[in-house]
Amino acid sequence: MADEAPGLSARLSEQADALAQLLATSGGADPGEVERAVSSVTTTLRQLGDTLGLDVGAALAAGPPQPVDDGPRPFPPLEVTVPVLGVDACKAGWVGAILEPGAPRPRIAVAATIADLVETVRQSLGIQAVAIDIPIGLPDDTTRQADAMARKALRGKASSVFTTLTRAAYAEATRQDADPVNRALTGQGVGAQAFGLRAKIIEVDTWVRSRPTVTVIEAHPELSFAVMAGAPIVAGKKTDAGRVARLAALAAAGLASPSVLNGSGYAADDVLDACAAAWTAARRMNGEAHPLPDPPETFSDGIPAAIWV
Questions:
Q1: What is the dihedral of CA 68, 74, 77, 80, to 10 degrees?
Q2: Whose CA is closest to 132, among 9, 226, 214?
Q3: For the stretch 20-30, what's the b/e string if a residue is b when 16 or more beta carbons lie within 10 angstroms of its beta carbon?
Q4: CA angle, corner 120, sides to 109 and 247, nearest 5?
Q5: Residue 109: which of 202, 99, 269 has the closest Cα?
Q6: With the CA atoms of 79, 85, 86 and 88 taken in that order, what torsion angle do they form, in degrees rounded to the nearest 10?
Q7: Residue 168: Cβ-neighbour burial (10 angstroms; 0-12, 13-18, 19+)
Q8: What's the pLDDT at 60?
Q9: Could you please report the per-residue DSSP string of 219-285?
Q10: CA 253 to CA 97: how far, in whole Å?
């Protein structure tokens, strides 16, 4: 029966052309004529399928093919167009990952204060943006949309995003004193991690309010890695598997392993978090990043509060 295929194919082409002309009729085609034309096309198509040994009926019943979900799709390699700095807190103070055009890998710098780190790097490179893994923009009597949106985006890793306390709560010297203040304003207590970073948060807040002449944004490394890799990295950042997964995500994004991974006062997870923040800083300068929320919230301090990804 295969020798019938050319004739059926020619008939199908003629019927399809006739249907197209009918549908293009000025003023609209008669529904009955359209139905008969479609029926003819379908009949011939089934006959052609039978001749070729194909189950056209099953294909028509199944409808159009669905897109194949082949898993997470990582971002294309990053183009570094201007010098930028990604920063993470560490025991030594602050560790920074420096990205610059043409450099084969992130360079690492460490300083006791955020101001010293940024100024040291800026004097030698003229960095244009700094992304810091610390809350920037403190709420007055609410929680932050940025934290809630980041948790929602990090399915399976939501616990890595703590709720930023109010400015009044961070003004208290102890967690015990801060708790009733925060509860009175937001209805929420004070978490250990949120208050444990109090000194770092106040330090960055003070520095940002001094109006540094460089673009400063907030980044969250777990969210940056999730966007970079196409899905949250489940393995903990302090584990061997987590370190390998994060290095692989950086490599896929076009960033080679940093110049060093650990040193006095900083560990590998600190360095990799700084690299993820630097990736976001570079995307910000390329116009590729976006804030959560968009537009950012602004509290009484006047500082845009958003996590950039």
A1: 140
A2: 214
A3: eeeeeeeeeee
A4: 25
A5: 99
A6: 160
A7: middle
A8: 62
A9: E-HHHHHHHHHTS---S-TTSHHHHHHHHHHHHHTT-PPPS-S-BTTB-HHHHHHHHHHHHHHHHHH
A10: 15
* 191 three-class SS: coil
State how beta strands 304-308 and 291-298 pair: antiparallel
Tell me the mean pLDDT per 10 residues along the chain, length 309. Answer: 70 77 64 79 78 68 50 72 98 98 94 98 94 98 97 93 97 98 97 95 98 96 95 95 96 93 96 98 96 98 97
* Domain boundaries, given as residue ranges, for the chain: 2-62, 84-308
Question: What pairs with residue 90 in β-bridges?
Answer: 93
Sign of CA dihedral 187, 201, 280, 88: negative
Tokens of 269: 């997870």
Q: How far is CA 221 from CA 15, 56, 256, 278, in A?
A: 59, 50, 17, 9
Tell me how far apart the alpha carbons of residues 158 and 61 are, in angstroms, rounded to a whole number: 42
Q: Can you tell me the distance from the alpha carbon of 292 to that of 284, in angstroms, rounded to the nearest whole number?
A: 13
Query: Cα 228 to chain center, whole Å?
Result: 6
Beta strand 84-90 with 93-99: parallel, antiparallel or unpaired? antiparallel
pLDDT tens-place string over residues 199-241 = 999 999 999 999 999 999 999 999 999 999 999 999 999 999 9
Q: Which of 115, 126, 133 is nearest to 84 (CA)?
A: 126
Distance CA(271)–CA(263), nearest Å, equals 10
Q: Which two tokens stand for residue 232?
A: 């949250």
Strand partners, 109: 96
Give the per-residue pLDDT at 75. 66
pLDDT of residue 276: 98
